Amino acid sequence: MPGPIEFWFEFASPYGYFAASRIDKLAEKHRRPVGWHPFLLGVVFKATGGQPLTGIPMKGAYSRRDMERTAGFLGVPFKLPEPFPFLSVAPARAFYWLTDNEPGRAKALALAVYHAIFGEGRVIDKPEQVADIAAGIGIDRSALLAGMAEPKVKDRLRAETERAIAQGIFGSPFVIADGEPFWGHDRFDQLDRWLDTGGW
Q1: Element (H, E) at 69
Q2: pLDDT of the chain, 200 residues: tens digit per residue
C-alpha cells in the first residue's frame, strides 16, 4: 500500500494556507492518506538564514501581489493580516494537543485557524484566540487551553520543528511523497504527476 503524503506547513504562511485548501483532495485522488505537520518557520529561518518573503525588497511587493492573484485563481478568500508575519506557536501547539487527544479534529481546527488568518485577515497568535476558534467548531475551549500549556505539547512542537530541519524542510508548504521533496504550493502539479507516474 502506498505510504502517506507528509504535509508540512507554518500557520503564518499564506502559501501554506493555499496548500491546505488542496492537499487532501489531491491525496484522495491518489488514494493516499495525509499526515499534517505544523512547524515553526521562524526557527527554521535561524538555521537557514531565510526571512519572510514580504520583508524582502522588491520580492516582498511581488509576493503580496502573487498571494492575491493565487487566492483569486483558487477561488479562496484572502486578506493578509497586519502585522505580518506573526508568531504561530499557539495554533501549532493546539494542533498537536488535538492530534494526541482528539485526532479527528486537529485538521478541522487547522483549516478554521487558516481561514481566520488569511480568509479574514486576523492575527491569531494567542492561545485564547485559538481556543475561541476551536469552540466555534465544537472543541472544548477550556480543555484545549489547558492542553496547549502542557510541557509535553511544547516539547512536541519543538521536536516536530527539529524533525523538519533534520529532513531538510526549509519553507512552507513542504510535501514529502515517497521520499521525494516538493517545496511550495506551486509544485502541486508536479506532485500530482509524480504520484500518478511514480516519478521520472
Answers
A1: helix 59-74
A2: 678 999 999 999 999 999 999 999 999 999 999 999 999 999 999 999 999 989 999 999 999 999 999 999 999 999 999 999 999 999 999 999 999 999 999 999 999 999 999 999 999 999 999 999 999 999 999 999 999 999 999 999 999 999 999 999 999 999 999 999 999 999 999 999 999 998 88
173 DSSP assignment = S
User: 0.85 cut: is pTM over it?
Assistant: yes
d(CA 114, CA 124): 9
Least Cα distance to 148 among 125, 118, 116, 164 occurs for 125
Q: What distance in Å separates the CA atoms of residue 59 and residue 73, rounded to the nearest whole number?
A: 20
**Is the distance from CB of 23 to CB of 5 less than 8 angstroms?**
yes
Q: For 76-130, what is the HEC assignment?
A: CCCCCCCCCCCCCHHHHHHHHHHHHHCHHHHHHHHHHHHHHHHHCCCCCCCHHHH
Contacts of 30 (CB under 8 A, 6+ apart): 2, 192, 195, 196
